[in-house]
């Protein structure tokens, strides 16, 4: 594989680029070790920084919520393993926004040489040449990249939205549907657009009590609240 392919930023639908790395939870082979699970792979600029600290406290406090969605967390920064360990110990001593005694049990990747960061397009010169931006990759149980989010260094992530994305993707996969704007679990879902005029007419005239249409191209399936 040539250098351009090695450094090309991965896109939606791509296989998650594979790598082996040392983490605070031991060595991992990614994404092979997570086959059959959803994964949130995310990067942060640096240990012992304020925004990143609040993010890790939030991720740590939500870890069981993500596990309930068959979702694992994997963090990364360009700091050393020793810096990671010292920072995570300090986080456990802090209290913020109702969160305290937060033990980070998910792996945090050591990426001093920025090999993984570059592989995933996490180092963006317009922001920094020495730090990873706040990237989020949602990877499905087959190892495919399903969502990519990038945040600037100054802006903390919206963790409710990250969780909602997982829920929406799982819903769409399970029921072959789509989710409308601001969808939350329990909200009605969108029935895929009809492939022919005949099918569109049938949809509009459907007697299915669980389905309703606003027009031929916009039909919903009711959900039990």
Walkthrough of the structure:
With 225 residues, the chain is α+β, with helices and mostly antiparallel strands. It has helices at 3-7, 50-61, 63-67, 81-92, 115-119, 159-175, 197-204; strands at residues 19-23, 26-30, 38-43, 71-77, 95-96, 99-100, 108-110, 134-139, 145-151, 189-191, 211-215, 218-221. It folds into two domains: 3-157, Glutaredoxin (3-Layer(aba) Sandwich), CATH 3.40.30.10; 176-221, Antioxidant, Horf6, Chain A, domain 2. The strands form four sheets. A five-stranded mixed sheet has the order 7-4-3-8-9. Strands 10-12-11 form a three-stranded antiparallel sheet, with no helix packed on it. Strand 1 (19-23) and strand 2 (26-30) form a beta hairpin. The protein is elongated.
| Helix-strand category | alpha+beta
Number of strands: 12
How confident is the prediction overall: mean pLDDT?
A: 87
Strand content: 15-25%
CATH class of the largest domain: Alpha Beta
CATH topology group of the largest domain: Glutaredoxin
Short description:
With 225 residues, this protein is an alpha+beta fold. The protein folds into 2 domains: 3-157, Glutaredoxin (3-Layer(aba) Sandwich), CATH 3.40.30; 176-221, Antioxidant, Horf6, Chain A, domain2 (Antioxidant, Horf6, Chain A, domain 2, 2-Layer Sandwich), CATH 3.30.1020.10. It has helices at 3-7, 50-61, 63-67, 81-92, 115-119, 159-175, 197-204, and strands spanning 19-23, 26-30, 38-43, 71-77, 95-96, 99-100, 108-110, 134-139, 145-151, 189-191, 211-215, 218-221.
């Amino acid at each position: 594989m040539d250098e351009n392919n090695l450094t090309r930023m991965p896109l939606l639908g791509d296989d998650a680029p594979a790598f082996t790395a040392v983490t605070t939870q031991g060595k991992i082979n990614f994404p092979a070790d997570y086959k059959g699970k959803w994964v949130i792979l995310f990067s942060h600029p640096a240990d012992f920084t304020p925004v990143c600290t609040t993010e890790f406290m939030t991720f740590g406090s939500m870890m069981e919520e993500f596990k309930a969605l068959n979702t694992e967390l994997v963090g990364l920064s360009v700091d050393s393993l020793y810096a990671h360990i010292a920072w995570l110990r300090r986080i456990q001593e802090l209290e913020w926004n109702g969160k305290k005694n937060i033990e980070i049990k998910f792996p945090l990747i050591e990426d001093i040489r920025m090999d993984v960061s570059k592989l995933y397009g996490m180092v963006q010169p317009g922001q920094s040449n020495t730090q990873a931006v706040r990237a989020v990759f949602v990877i499905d149980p087959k190892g495919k990249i399903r969502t990519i989010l990038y945040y600037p260094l100054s802006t903390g992530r919206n963790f409710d939205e990250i969780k909602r994305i997982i829920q929406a993707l799982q819903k769409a996969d399970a029921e072959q549907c789509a989710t409308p704007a601001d969808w939350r679990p329990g909200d009605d879902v969108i029935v895929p657009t009809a492939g022919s005029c005949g099918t569109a007419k049938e949809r509009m005239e459907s007697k299915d009590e669980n389905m309703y249409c606003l027009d031929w191209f916009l039909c919903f399936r009711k959900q039990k609240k």
